[in-house]
Specification:
Two copies of one chain form a homodimer. With 224 residues, the first copy, chain A, is an alpha+beta fold. Chain A has two domains: 10-87, Winged helix-like DNA-binding domain superfamily/Winged helix DNA-binding domain (Arc Repressor Mutant, subunit A), CATH 1.10.10; 108-217, Nonspecific Lipid-transfer Protein, Chain A, CATH 3.30.1050.10. In chain A, 39% of the residues lie in helices and 17% in strands. Chain A contains ten helices and seven strands. Chain A has helices at residues 10-18, 23-30, 37-43, 49-61, 83-86, 89-100, 114-124, 175-180, 185-191, 200-209, and strands at 65-68, 78-81, 135-140, 143-150, 153-158, 167-171, 195-198. In chain A, the strands form two sheets. In chain A, strands 5-4-3-6-7 form a five-stranded mixed sheet. Chain A has a two-stranded antiparallel sheet with strand order 1-2. At the A-B interface, α1, α2, α6 and α7 of A face α1, α2, α6 and α7 of B. Chain A binds a DNA duplex (20 and 20 nucleotides) through residues 3, 20-21, 36-38, 41, 46-54, 75-77.
Chain lengths: 224, 224
Amino acid sequence: MSKDYGQFCGLAKAASVLGERWALLVLRDLSLGPRRFGDLQKGLPGIPTTVLTTRLRELEEHGIIERQAPPLGRRGLVYAMTDHGRDLTPILDALGRWGARRMADPGTHDVMTSSSLAGALRSAYRPGVIPDEVTIRVAAGPVLAWARTTPDGVAVGAGIPDGPIDLTITTGPAMRHILAGTLSPSEALATGALAFDGSRELFDLFPRAFHVPLDPTIIQGEST
Amino acid sequence: MSKDYGQFCGLAKAASVLGERWALLVLRDLSLGPRRFGDLQKGLPGIPTTVLTTRLRELEEHGIIERQAPPLGRRGLVYAMTDHGRDLTPILDALGRWGARRMADPGTHDVMTSSSLAGALRSAYRPGVIPDEVTIRVAAGPVLAWARTTPDGVAVGAGIPDGPIDLTITTGPAMRHILAGTLSPSEALATGALAFDGSRELFDLFPRAFHVPLDPTIIQGEST
DNA sequence: CGGTATCCCTTGCGATACTG
DNA sequence: CAGTATCGCAAGGGATACCG
């Protein structure tokens, strides 16, 4: 059971569950779709199995996630968000945007995961820039994610999207500066920090449709 | 130094600081205004001095709070939010609303603090219901807070407000059900769970201007 | 009053090994 | 593949004592 703060306060109740180690990252991964135990473990490098087990149990006890029978013919269970858990999605996105403001470049031991990339795309999305329904694929080395714009927002996911792809962006950590607007797409193309395949028009819209500002107080190279 | 997750991810960075024990509650209190060490300690029942010291230092290192010279003639230092910290306020409110959805009645060991009450008011506020600038005082036993509506939102605080008071509400844990809309003001008046002093008209507007829904799945008496 | 310094105890975390 | 069992270690909780 997670630690309580002994206060009759919504924030205190939230903190007692979400403040546990790894909890927010487990939820980020599950916010992108149902996952099996092993998926989560692979997607969260460094998480001890015992901790993952404990977090999943606590989150289930609090009605934030639930175990489901797997989709059609697959074996094992999957963990999935409940409605109550899905209510957290915009908050996770806001927290991610806030944290990213001071995150310019990866630290020595920082890795990117498909879920973190997908989450970044979701939290970066600004409606109204891209009028059509399009599918964008982003590849940062082995890390793959996609975003599909819809009339009411954006759907994102880890891995490879179903259906046709309108734009593929291949990049690395430079993606952070694209999202920040501190590196223009054409510059990035010139230096080879980034490549694309598909609609040039869509490519040019990308930095306005997906944007997470960078705090001006952050200087290049520093990022805790 | 707070624990990192080794991921190049805004949410992971946020979680590494905000996930530390007591961090979110320290920030809730500071989001209501500058506080001295002792203020925080009194307002956060159960926090060990060592942990408060550590959290304050970490939050300062991350540029979320800062130490300031005290206002005019008082001695000692005060801790206050930086701009970066203030950016968290809407997120804290959203988290508080989310946590409060499953919080119907106080647990046996749950206390209310002036900061938690003030925070509840801020997160509950819905613009557009109260047209004027008014000051509302809420007393739940020894716990005092106030809210002043303004054209662009609401200002809240712990303790007693400056200036004239348009409405005083005296209540207890029943306040949660007023905010939820599961207890009508007139009912509460009849049972004595609540009393008010001041504008009746404003009193009747209150539940619409300050609202935090309660999850229907929660049954009376249960609240972890 | 605003902390720092210790001490002891308990808990949770992280790593590894192992079982259904 | 999906966890449980175990264990050493670091950190938090709580009390108390003490400095500026």
